[in-house]
Amino acid sequence: MNAQAPALRDPRLNRPEPLTPPLGDGGFFQRDRSIHPPAHAPGYKSSVLRSPRQALLSLENSISEITGPVFGHNDLGPLDNDLIRNYAKDGDPIGERIVVHGRVVDETGRGVPNTLVEFWQANAGGRYRHKKDTYLAPIDPNFGGCGRALTDDTGYYNFRTVKPGPYPWRNYVNSWRPAHIHFSVFGSGFAQRLITQMYFEGDPLIPICPILTTIPDKDALDRLVAPLDLNASTPFDSLAYRFDIVLRGQRSTYFENRTAGN
Amino acid sequence: MPQPLNYLKETASQTAGPYVHIGLIPAMAGFDIFEKNFSNVLVTPNTEGERITLEGKVLDGTGTPLRDVLLEIWQANAAGRYNHPADRSAGALEQEFRGWGRAGSDFESGLVTFETIKPGAITDRAGRTCAPHINVWIVARGINIGLNTRLYFSDEEAANAADPVLNLIEQPSRRGTLIAKRGERAGKVVYAFTINLQGPEETVFFDV
Description:
The complex is a heterodimer of chains A (262) and B (208). Helix content of chain A is 3%, strand content 22%.
């Protein structure tokens, strides 16, 4: 894995300089739910019966939320971040060869090191290797469609794959998902746990996707769209896309002065 | 104008979708790809503590079990210690016990199971004792942002009554939605739970 992360200069991140107080192990910054999709988003029909209707109970982070599972290189295999090779049987998978790379940082801009990032996707034809997917596009015998990586000490990760295709799904009669890659990220505490999806710059299905448009905040939606990163592309081999992921920041505990019962 | 703070914004959540198994539990999607896989078995032969099976379902607003849901659990060991550097409590750490597992629901019945141990009571950093509990995170198609809840144990009545989190729940009747019921089957301890996403028995979910 590339040890040197490229400098974060992406204007979408709206950040002249990272704020980096000493890393604490206090509670996480309160989650800003206005940038997340609401649980009940009727345009995405599956959410109607699967969304809690009571108010969430606000919970000041305790040790149960500040802590979370720790992973290491022993959990991974050598090809886990190479989707072009990790299921190849008799050749390479069909499709546009791409590298996806970026950093996992927290809301203060600090890299989140040694955290597990998992990703999964459809193949170039828009078909998932899943026994419940019956879309007529063919399975690619050389493509599994999943991988994982551990960020390095700066929060950097990368993987190689083929660009997934769009596919139809049952929401409206003619609903299509834009090409996307699913991401699962842990962070250092269970309250940072996040699943999201990365989209590709320029995809005309983005503005009409019933799932993507559950996000009420335009900027938050734009931050899920990975730009083409020509500088990171490998000539005569593969294009690259850049996808940075921001997890919740964590308060420092300079002063532990709360006593029992307070 | 005051100085700008320039915090970043958290990346927006998106649903895990119906094919979450491909990435997180590929064997359930129907293929074998990784040398090492994560699972719903948290224990090794060396793990200290009482072996338990956690078994339950997640129900939608019609009472139908979700058959494409994925649950993760995060828990302390039998001594009440989380396997994480931020937990500096006194209980003995067991390096082999990560305290985390994930499970997909059965594609037919919707049943979710974990093989683990009953965690010990936890001492938080304010010195308070918290009833034994397991932290649960739920994702699925139709769930736009992962849901956080907890499971407590029906045989810990006194500890539950004193638990600072259970006591945050205004309606005492809703506290029961977090309590798994202890039973036995074939000589094994089974804790049964039901997570209701909606309805009069809606489970308490937390904004952590």
